[in-house]
């Protein structure tokens, strides 16, 4: 890849979480950013996720706060609850439209789109970006059974990057796992204060968290 190419990352949070969970590793989002900064000029790094608004505390919030202060453009919207035909309560939080609109608007300003998702619904978006002269890489995996990436999306992409091959470069050291969303004395962190990105402890704690609330019915 040319070092002069303009790159934008588009991360489907729920899909990436499901993929890494299946592969059995956690993303280090600081390392992920550095990995693609080293491949060209990183114009934007978007992260999309739905949030359950009525919860007293959301375990994904520390990740969202850290990303927002450390080079990512975070896009969120509230989830919606509904009852299906069997009477079961479900939560829906699909961010496909938001991701697609941002990608199309940014297309004139980038050379390379990196899509972290295996959702086949994005095939038409990939094709639309390619018609505009943008090279598209899809990041997911085919090493699981069944594969986490839709075959039509993988075939449409200019390049497919298997997430299992990126573990050594963007994965988190298992020994570096932070305490589960609790303070040093077991209390929940105070979200009234914004995270301080220069604080090494906060970076270690929040910069590599995986979302817990993204396992939604999407």
UniProtKB/TrEMBL annotation:
Domain NYN, chain residue ranges per copy: 6-163
Annotated segments matching region Disordered: 169-218
Top-level taxonomic group: Bacteria
Top-level taxonomy: Bacteria, Pseudomonadati, Pseudomonadota, Alphaproteobacteria, Hyphomicrobiales
InterPro entries: LabA (IPR047140), NYN (IPR021139)
Pfam families: NYN (PF01936)
The protein, known as: NYN domain-containing protein
Compositional bias of kind Basic and acidic residues: 170-193
GO molecular function, one term: RNA nuclease activity
């Amino acid at each position: 890849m040319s070092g002069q190419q303009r790159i934008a990352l588009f991360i489907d949070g729920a899909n990436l979480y499901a993929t890494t969970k299946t592969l059995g590793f956690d993303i280090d989002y600081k390392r992920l950013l550095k990995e693609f900064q080293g491949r060209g000029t990183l114009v934007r790094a978007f992260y999309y996720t739905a949030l359950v608004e009525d919860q007293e505390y959301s375990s994904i919030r520390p990740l969202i706060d850290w990303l927002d202060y450390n080079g990512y453009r975070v896009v969120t919207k509230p989830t919606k609850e509904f009852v299906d035909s069997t009477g079961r309560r479900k939560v829906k939080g699909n961010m496909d439209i938001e991701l697609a609109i941002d990608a199309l608007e940014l297309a004139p300003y980038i050379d390379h789109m990196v899509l972290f998702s295996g959702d086949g619904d994005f095939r038409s978006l990939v094709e639309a970006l390619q018609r505009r002269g943008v090279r598209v890489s899809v990041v997911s995996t085919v090493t699981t059974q069944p594969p986490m990436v839709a075959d039509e999306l993988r075939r449409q992409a200019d390049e497919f990057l298997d997430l299992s091959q990126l573990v050594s470069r963007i994965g988190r050291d298992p020994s570096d796992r932070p305490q589960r969303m609790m303070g040093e004395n077991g209390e929940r962190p105070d979200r009234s204060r914004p995270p301080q990105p220069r604080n090494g402890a906060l970076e270690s704690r929040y910069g590599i968290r995986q979302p817990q609330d993204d396992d939604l019915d999407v």
